[in-house]
Write a structure and sequence with these properties.
The structure is a single chain. The protein is α/β, with parallel strands linked by helices. It folds into three domains: about 30-70; about 100-310, 3-Layer(aba) Sandwich (Rossmann fold), CATH 3.40.50.300; about 310-465, Ribosomal Protein S5, domain 2, CATH 3.30.230. The chain has helices at about 15-35, 105-110, 130-145, 160-170, 185-195, 220-240, 260-265, 310-315, 360-375, 400-410, 440-445; strands at about 35-40, 50, 65-70, 100, 115, 120-125, 150-155, 175-180, 200-205, 240-245, 265-270, 280-285, 295-300, 305, 325-330, 335-345, 355, 380-390, 420, 425, 430-435, 450-455. The strands form six sheets. A nine-stranded mixed β-sheet has the order 8-7-9-10-6-11-12-13-14. A hairpin with a 5-residue loop joins strand 20 and strand 21. Helix 9 packs across helix 10 (about 400-410). The chain is globular and about 90 Å long.
């Protein structure tokens, strides 16, 4: 055997050598993987996972995990990092005390007095709600009245389209710079190199821009993160206010994971009913102001018009009809009045419908349960529809009594006075609670013509609804 194969011994590899080679191959593999790591990020809550799941383990959202690839920069390592600089906090000077007016009073109200220096704002809303129109109104106000240079970067529309819209809105475009470049690094390089520094830069929109430093497809999570990081760095370095338009998902949330919202200073949401002219601007996040303020705007042919008295859109003074009540809520520092309408019809289904427009459906179900318990109304046999006029959202529980009054009115065919006004939160035991803002709300309601008030003082429980109104 040995004479037939004299050299077989020298090709034999020992077990230890095999283990060494195997370990080397494993280390090489992991070093390559480390340079191109793949994770899966939930677009709803921002949680990150090493593998894909159909349902996010953290928030429970289905089909929300998106692939996200990060690449290590071989030029940088932890060992070569420069030490951080610490300075006494007492010696620091705030750079955000000076405000820059947007030129639109309602926008300034939501922002807390105007733009802050180096602020990055994300504006979102339904398609066609008027995001670009609102920003063009702000750009026109800054460039026209304040004579400040403003840059508008749009990868969605051409220069001629923006110019035509600006002309229709009566905007002076002499101080407006425009670019339709979609490469974010080319845009920021041009803005950084120009001698005239813009006071405001608009990016329309985040999902249409792309970055060459990321290998992911445009519109992906990795691209959005890279682009937004570049915009934030540019704004902080040059002291420029940046507004980025962000698309939304079919559920009405801002597209992309939540950490995109964490990266910016302010998140604004523009909402409004299709076919209606009223637009409501809300602040979901604001590092330099309150998130309680709300701005009311009207979409007209010349752009966005400020609404000084929003109650005229929500309140119908013809209140003496079945199923209708008047309520008032506090929106920021303003009192807003609205009409609540209710309709009940006999249900042919085992589980009656509960349709709510302008209020939370769960809140409506809770109020219906209170009506059934204490007023013995057979709401479980009826489909119930409740709507708030004008598209206003009643988040304040102080409108509970008005909602219950509208449902009670339509179920019992009761008509309240045209001067009746409802204000009060209803508890699970049927009691009506007062609010610390009730004095101001009733004062404003009395000023516009209401004289008959249903409050915790004269309506201590929901049983008191039976004593009011006429059939």
């Amino acid at each position: 055997m040995n004479t037939c194969f004299p050299s077989i011994r020298k090709y034999t590899i020992s077990g230890s050598r095999i283990r060494t080679i195997g370990l080397t191959l494993i280390l090489c593999y992991y070093s390559l993987v480390a340079k191109n790591q793949t994770s899966y990020v939930c677009s709803n809550c921002g949680a990150s996972f090493a593998s894909w799941y159909g349902k996010c383990p953290d928030c429970g959202q289905w089909e929300a995990l998106k692939r996200f690839t990060t690449q290590d920069d071989p030029k940088e390592s932890r060992s070569n990092a420069a030490p951080a600089h610490f300075a006494p906090l007492a010696a620091a000077q705030s750079t955000h005390t000076e405000r820059i007016s947007s030129g639109v009073t309602e926008v300034d109200r939501v922002l807390g007095g105007g733009f802050s220096r180096s602020e990055v704002i994300m504006l979102s809303g339904e398609p066609g709600v008027g995001k670009s129109t609102l920003l063009l109104s702000i750009v026109g106000a800054l460039a026209g009245h304040s004579k400040q240079t403003v840059a508008y970067c749009s990868a969605e529309e051409e220069e001629s389209q923006i110019a035509l819209r600006a002309k229709r809105m009566g905007i002076d475009t002499s101080n407006i710079l425009f670019s339709d470049e979609s490469n974010i690094h080319s845009v920021l390089l041009a803005l950084s190199s120009q001698k005239i520094k813009p006071a405001l830069v608009v990016f329309d929109s985040l999902q249409t821009l792309y970055s060459k430093t990321s290998e992911s497809l445009p519109g992906s999570v990795a691209q959005a993160k890279e682009i937004l990081m570049s915009i934030v760095d540019f704004s902080k370095k040059h002291g420029v206010v940046s507004i980025v338009i962000g698309h939304i998902t079919k559920d009405g949330d801002i597209a992309g994971p939540k950490f995109l919202e964490h990266m910016v200073d302010c998140v604004l949401f523009l909402e409004g009913e299709k076919g209606g002219g009223l637009r409501i601007l809300r602040s979901l996040k604001n590092r330099y102001g309150s998130i309680e303020e709300v701005g009311f705007l009207e979409m007209v042919s010349t752009g966005m018009k400020e609404v000084g008295n929003p109650s005229k859109f929500f309140l119908d003074m013809n209140m003496s009809v079945v199923g209708k009540t008047a309520v008032g809520i506090r929106e920021g520092e303003r009192i807003v009045f609205a009409s609540v309408e209710a309709l009940v019809v006999a249900s042919s289904m085992a589980f009656p419908k509960r349709v709510a427009k302008g209020i939370d459906t769960k809140r409506l179900e809770l109020l219906l349960a209170i009506l059934k318990k204490y007023l013995k109304l057979p709401v479980d046999k009826y489909d119930v529809y409740v709507s708030v006029s004008g598209g206003l959202q009643l988040f304040d529980p102080i409108a509970d009594l008005g909602i219950m009054g509208a449902v009670y009115s339509t179920m019992t065919n009761t008509v309240y006075s045209s001067h009746a006004f409802f204000v009060g939160e209803v508890g699970l035991l049927g009691q009506v609670r007062a609010s610390r803002h009730i004095a101001r709300i009733t004062k404003e309601a009395r000023r516009i013509g209401f004289t008959e008030f249903y409050t915790a003082q004269n309506t201590p429980t929901v049983l008191s609804l039976q004593k009011h109104g006429s059939k």
